[in-house]
């Protein structure tokens, strides 16, 4: 069993980050071209807490070597099941994901949390990512360790790319927020 952790602070408000999060896999995000579909399976708001719970299926184009795909008998697509919780009262987004493809060989459970920064709660958002990776290889400890280490390294590389792509999405979202505020100010001024 191996773990991966990453923390980062985005120079955007929690409102910008929690809204931009839904656009993370948009077509113009050059860092997520491997994501070919995001299907919302279920979405509801708890009337007592106001928490938005969403279940999604994320379909990705595999980038594993062809020889490995042939060995495993797999196809070039992989699937990830994600459940997210947006708590507007606590200003917290929690996203939990689990691989569905090759789940009998490798378990990857990831949790991501976005919340206002403790140092600048009205200007920055803290990001925390945690992944637990377990390879199932029976008694082959050396193979198991190699698979888990490879997966952690891949996670590390993808975390950097993901952060870069999300920064671009957030910048676009910031522009949209600014345009909307300007439009509302103009409408309010016109009413006076």
Give structural notes.
- The chain is of the alpha+beta class and 192 residues long.
- The protein is built from 3 helices and 7 strands, in the order E-H-E-E-H-E-E-E-E-H.
- The model has no long low-confidence stretch (mean pLDDT 88).
- A hairpin with a 4-residue loop joins strand 4 (77-87) and strand 5 (92-99).
- Strands 1-7-6-5-4-3-2 form a 7-stranded antiparallel sheet.
- Helix 1 packs across helix 3.
- It has one domain (2-191): Alpha-D-Glucose-1,6-Bisphosphate, Chain A, domain 4.
- The radius of gyration is 19 Å and the shape is elongated.
- It has helices at 14-20, 66-72, 141-191, and strands at 2-10, 35-45, 52-61, 77-87, 92-99, 106-116, 125-135.
Short description:
With 192 residues, the protein is α+β, with helices and mostly antiparallel strands.
The chain-level mean pLDDT equals: 88
**Quick one: CATH class?**
Alpha Beta
Strand elements, count: 7
Number of domains: 1
Question: Taking strands numbered 1, 2, ... along the chain, how are they ordered across the largest sheet?
Answer: 1-7-6-5-4-3-2
* Named CATH topology: Alpha-D-Glucose-1,6-Bisphosphate, Chain A, domain 4
Strand content: 35-45%
Organism: Cryomyces antarcticus
InterPro entries: PRELI/MSF1_dom, Slowmo/Ups
Pfam families: PRELI (PF04707)
Protein name: Phospholipid metabolism protein
Set out the fold topology.
Layout: E1 2-10, H1 14-20, E2 35-45, E3 52-61, H2 66-72, E4 77-87, E5 92-99, E6 106-116, E7 125-135, H3 141-191
Antiparallel strand pairs: 1-7, 2-3, 3-4, 4-5, 5-6, 6-7
Helix pairs in contact: 1-3
Protein name: Phospholipid metabolism protein
Organism: Cryomyces antarcticus
InterPro entries: PRELI/MSF1_dom, Slowmo/Ups
């Amino acid at each position: 069993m191996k773990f991966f952790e990453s923390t980062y602070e985005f120079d955007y408000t929690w409102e910008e980050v929690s809204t931009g999060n839904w656009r993370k896999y948009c077509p113009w995000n050059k860092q997520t071209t491997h994501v070919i579909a995001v299907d919302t399976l279920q979405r509801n708001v708890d009337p007592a807490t106001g928490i938005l719970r969403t279940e999604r299926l994320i379909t990705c184009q595999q980038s594993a070597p062809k020889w490995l795909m042939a060995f495993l008998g797999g196809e070039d697509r992989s699937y990830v099941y994600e459940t997210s919780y947006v708590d507007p009262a606590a200003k917290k987004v929690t996203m939990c994901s689990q691989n569905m493809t090759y789940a009998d060989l490798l378990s990857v459970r990831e949790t991501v949390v976005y919340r206002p920064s403790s140092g600048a709660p009205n200007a920055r958002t803290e990001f925390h990512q945690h992944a637990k990776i377990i390879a199932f290889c029976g008694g082959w400890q050396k193979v198991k360790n190699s698979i888990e280490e490879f997966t952690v390294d891949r996670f590390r590389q993808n975390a950097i790319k993901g952060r870069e792509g999300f920064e671009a999405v957030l910048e676009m979202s910031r522009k949209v927020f600014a345009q909307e505020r300007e439009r509302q100010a103009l409408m309010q001024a016109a009413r006076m």
